[in-house]
Amino acid sequence: MNVEKEYAEIYWKSKIFIKNIQLSTEKTLQRLENKVNGDNDHQLQHFQDVKNEIRETQYLVSRRLNLQWISQRLTISQTIIPNIPANANWVQNGVTVAGGHGQGSATDQLSSPWDLFVDDDQTVVITDQGNHRIIQWKMGDTNGQVVAGGKGAGSRLDQLNHPTDVLIDKETDSLIICDHGNQRVVRWSRRSGTTQGDILLEYISCVGLAMDDQRYLYVSDDDKYEVTRYQLGDKTGTLVAGGNGTGAGLNQLNKPTNLFVDRQQPVYVSDFNNHRVMKWTK
Description:
The protein is of the alpha+beta class. It has 2 helices and 15 strands. Helix content is about 25%, strand content about 30%. The strands form 4 sheets. A 4-stranded antiparallel beta sheet has the order 1-2-3-4, with no helix packed on it. Strands 5-6-7-8 form a 4-stranded antiparallel beta sheet, with no helix packed on it. One of its GO terms (cellular component) is extracellular region. Keywords: Glycoprotein, Repeat, Signal.
């Protein structure tokens, strides 16, 4: 059981425990109120004050538990960055984790892999551009699994055409893909049995993707020389970078490709034909 599941179990057990206390307290208060109703007004007012204090305490306890749950989830979701010494040395030989059996379309091969995304469990999701598919490798596997496309280049909902980027939307457990050759952004569920995707954005020459902590989607468009931010489900976005025609000015881009958005939401852009990396802040 992972840390988040353990904390979730503790949270719900605590919620049930608090609810049971509240029900028991309400029954006791009701019995006392029935008894006090026959006494003088001073005692009744005192009882009402005590009852209000008890209910306020119950509310504060429940609210604090909810806030602790939110705080814990945020803490768990943060990436733990190891303290790597400045003079650290890496091993001299790498390890092949996907492909490595020559160019091809078998599930142990790749053809011009363009980009990748690594999930929390070390699953590597790859844009296998030459095979017009998205393929994933779990740690230690000798063969990958095609999770989107793989039916030749085409524009059907079960096809891709030279995909260039992919990311995982953990909230919906789905893949969001730059389907560059079809000038669209598509989403494929990661659930078993998924045979086709659905279109999020059309008529966009998407090359790169990024998603921030609020699940806004950032898309680089190498035809319009711009980067745009979209709320998932919206067809109209907000211009973030470029959009002033091709050029080398600080307000311009020339074939934007890869993107990165950090927690403070500045956007980093690979400005391919200007041979530079640009940063845009909010």
